[in-house]
Design a protein that fits this description.
It is a single chain. This protein has seven helices and seven strands. It is of the alpha+beta class. Helix 4 runs parallel beside helix 7. The longest helix has 28 residues.
Length: about 170
């Protein structure tokens, strides 16, 4: 951390903030959220370092045993590479990232499905982009069949491409 104050030179940012004596160890992360009766949610805790409201509390312990809860962004911003590495390799962080990826994929699928359903008649009237026919019945496949096949078999990148092509094709 850059500073003009000579007493702060060589000290950890968390140490200067009064969170204990450095070095600091990452212990774990937990979610703290307040849910209101109407279903809205907000952060349930606050960062001991900066005071900002935080939903995901990262617990750190100083050399002298003082426990503190800080936000993910504060761990990133203070510049402690060891603390950041411990945070990013923790099971809680990986589970959170996995949850976010699943939510994003579900949102993309929902967008694709809404575009497909809104334009189903158009897609069923168009021939298959590569001219495929059903092997068992000999009936020509449609653009609808192609979109359904792609959606059921592609990964994240394929769904993103499909969404872009559908948005370009059916731009409102």
């Amino acid at each position: 951390m850059k500073t003009e104050i000579t007493a702060h030179v060589g000290k950890h940012a968390f140490e200067i903030a009064g969170l204990g004596e450095g070095p600091f160890r990452y212990i774990g992360m937990s979610e703290n959220v307040i849910t209101y009766p109407d279903g809205t949610q907000k952060a349930g805790g606050s960062c001991d370092y900066c005071g900002t409201g935080i939903r995901f509390e990262c617990v750190i312990v100083s050399k002298d045993g003082k426990r503190s809860k800080v936000g993910c962004e504060c761990i990133r911003k203070v510049g402690d590479a060891g603390l950041l590495k411990a945070y990013k390799s923790s099971p809680e962080f990986r589970a959170h990232q996995r949850k976010l990826r699943i939510q994003k994929a579900a949102a993309v699928c929902a967008q694709i499905n809404s575009i497909l359903e809104a334009n189903r008649a158009t897609l069923e009237s168009q021939p298959h982009p590569r001219g495929f026919i059903d092997r068992q019945t000999g009936v020509a496949l449609t653009a609808w069949d192609d979109a359904q096949w792609l959606l059921s078999r592609c990964g994240d990148a394929g769904r993103a491409r499909l969404l872009r092509s559908l948005k370009a094709k059916f731009a409102a």
